[in-house]
Amino acid sequence: MRILLYRGDGEIGAWAEDLARALPGAETVGWQEGETLPACDHAVLWNPAPSLLPQLAQLKAVFLMGAGADAILKFGDALPDVPIVRLGDTGMAVQMAEYVAYATLRYFRRFDEYEEQARHGLWTPLPAHEKEDFTVGVMGLGKLGLRVVETMRSFGFPVRGWSRTPKELPGVDCFAGMEALDAFLSGTRVLVSLLPLTNETNNLLDRRRLSTLPRGSYVINVARGAQLAEPDLLTLIRAGHIAGATLDVFRNEPLPAPHPFWEEPRITITPHISAITIRGEAVRQIAEKIAAFEAGNPVDDIVDRNLGY
Ligand code: NAP
Ligand code: GLV
C-alpha cells in the first residue's frame, strides 16, 4: 500500500516516521508542486495545493490531519469525488475545554482586570460576577462542543447549546436550527463558537446577531475566523455592547500586522492553537481508519460534502 503524505504548511518527515511504525508495510511518498504523483492508495494531508487536487482522483480515500474539512471542501467541484475522512477526537476536545474554561474564567473572575490593576500596583477587590448571570452558550455540539459543555457545567455555569439538528443533553438548554438562533443568543453571556465553517456558518456572527447578545457579553471564537464579521465585533466592543473577546482564529491567518484587533486591549489573540493536532494520536487513529477501509469495515468521521462537515 502506498500513501501520499502532504502538508501545505509544514514538514512531513515526522509524520512519515510515525505512519511507518503504525502501518508496517505501507510506503509513504511526498509530493511537490510540478511533480506527477505516483500510483497511491490513500493520502494523509492538510491544506492541499490546488494543483494537487486532480491527482487525488486516483485515491481510495483522503485522510485529513485535522478536524475541520473547510480547507479542502472550499475547492468544491475541483475536488475529486473520493471519500474525505477528518480526524475524530485525538486529544483536541480536552484542549478546547481547557482553552474555553481559561478564557471564560479570566473574564468571569475578572482576572483580566486584576492583571491590569497589578501592573499599576493597585490592590482593589472588585465585586464578584454572579454565575447565574453567566450563561455559557456553545454553538456546535459535536465532538469538541460537547466536551466544552460538559466542562463548563462542571464549574456550575448555566449552559446552553445550539446545533443544526435537535439534541437533548442533561442540564443543558438545547436550541436547534436558524429559527432558534436569536433565542439562543439573547440568553447567552459567554458565546463560544465550535461550528464547522460551511456555507451556512460563513459570516454567521454579524452585527445583527452579535447585537442580539445581552450587553456585557463575551465572545470566544475557537472554530474558524470567517464565521465572525470582524469589523462588527470591533464596533460592538468599542460601543460597549460586547465586553471583549478571546479569538484563536481569524479570517486571514496569520492575523496581519496592521489589523485593528492587535490594538484593542479587550481582545485577546492566540495564533490558532486552541486545539492542536497531536501527531502521535492522529497517526494512530488514521492508521486504524486506513486498516478499516482496506478491510471493508465502516470508517468514522467521513465528511458529508453536502453539509460541508
Ligand atoms: P463536529 O463533531 O462535526 O460538530 C459540529 C457541530 O456543529 C455539530 O453539533 C453540528 O450540528 C453543528 N453545526 C454544523 N452546522 C451547523 C449549522 N448550520 N447550524 C447549527 N449547528 C451546526 O465538529 P468538531 O470536531 O466538534 O469541530 C468543530 C470545528 O472546530 C471544526 O470544524 C474546526 O473548524 C474547528 N476546530 C478548530 C481548532 C482550532 O485549533 N482552533 C481545532 C480543531 C477544530 P449537528 O450535531 O446537528 O450535526
Ligand atoms: C484545526 O483547526 C483543525 O481543524 O484541526
Summarize the structure.
The chain is 29% helix and 17% strand.
What do these coordinates show?
The chain is of the alpha/beta class. The chain contains nine helices and twelve strands. Strands 8-7-6-9-10-11-12 form a seven-stranded parallel beta sheet. Strands 2-1-3-4-5 form a five-stranded parallel beta sheet, covered by helices on one side. Helix 2 (70-73) links the parallel strand 4 and strand 5 (84-85). The mean pLDDT is 97. The structure holds NADP nicotinamide-adenine-dinucleotide phosphate and glyoxylic acid. NADP nicotinamide-adenine-dinucleotide phosphate (NAP) binds next to helix 5 and strand 7. NADP nicotinamide-adenine-dinucleotide phosphate is lined by residues 67-68, 92, 140-145, 162-165, 194-198, 200-201, 222-224, 248-249, 272, 274-275, 309.
